[in-house]
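User: I want to check something. If I give you two sequences, will you return the structure for each one separately, not as a complex?

Assistant: Yes, each is folded on its own. Here is the first sequence with its structure:
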Amino acid sequence: MAAVIDLMETGGGALWAIAALSFVGWYIMLDRWLEQQHARLNTRRWARIVEPRLAAGDVADLPALQREWPCIEASAVAFSLATRQDAPDFGEHLRRFMRGAATRARRRLASIAVIAAVLPLLGLLGTVTGMVQTFTVLADVSHPDPRLLADGITQALLTTEAGLLAALPLLLGHAVLRSSLRRALDRAQLYAHRARHARDHQKAA
């Protein structure tokens, strides 16, 4: 533990800021991941109930399932069935609904991307601070102490490396979460069209 504290003190304030912001980023990312896992579990349970009903054309009670198994797929189906059957521009209504759902969901992931972008900048700030410290030693002392020079250079390199290493997993995690969200939105749109088709077929029969 003492070695970690010594390392953090060597990196200065920038390294402490990187560590704190990285912790916040990981917390948000894990929270969003757990949220997606919960939604995926709800989707699976919801789909086991919905699939037979869609095949049979029995869609009357599907909107009520949204309260029991909340997920984007259930919301899309409820929206699809709530739209009038004779609405000529259903496709546009559905696209607008899906765009709104996508915007809200992506906004919840945006903070991860922002933190991942800020971390290397904090590393760069630490680099500048370390180099300023190094040049200050060179300017103030006619025979500079190599240890003081090494402290400034160490801070410059350490914070740069820390900023990049902290940002990388957050960027990868953000990409994975966005990909999972995109698949969920695609499934939701497909289920909405299937529910609409099943209801129209049932009315026609």
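And separately, the second sequence with its own structure:
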Amino acid sequence: MRYIEANLFSDVSLPAIARDAFASPSTLLRHFRDDTGKTPHAYIKTRRLEEARRLIEVGVQNSSAFARPFALPPGTPKDRVAALRKAFDATLKDPAFLAEAEKANLSLDPVTGDEMSRLVADVFTLDADTIANTTRAVLAMAAKHRITSLALPALGTGVGHVPPAISAEAMLKEVVAHLKSGRSSLRRVAFVLYQDDAYKTFTDTLKRLGGMQ
């Protein structure tokens, strides 16, 4: 199961799962059906649908939680954030805006800026394993589509409050391993880092891991 979860959005085959489990495909298939009641293919399809549904639910129920945090980079002055939050909240209470939303069958449930911050923090709370798995999935997608250039944020270091050292270690291990595998189409990987401490941490970690800059 760990192999499937770690490669959920990659091209996961029965032989690959069997190799990871040190079993033959037929033995794995038999035990997998006994344990889950499904074939590996059906299980993977179900898990992908569950993840897609979860993301859609978050986007629909808390759409404002996505828009505001990523519109403002870390380090934006607090008075600027407060002013924008006040304007945003006022817009959501404006009668004309609400009338247009009703015509478009949009359901709006305005919340305060502090409530939005808590919502975002809950949604984007990440640990090292999740960051590594997400990075691996992005790299797999890049390889599948033969992408040559990729830009990545420092996952979790914004609203997720993950220390840059944890994000750097998890992400760069995956990136370095991917680039050194000899099977990557990538020629350039850039990290979008807003803060000096994050830049230093990612640079130091990359050097320690023997990566490329």
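Because they were folded independently, the notes below concern the second chain alone. The first strand starts at residue 149 and ends at 153. Strands lie at 149-153, 188-192.
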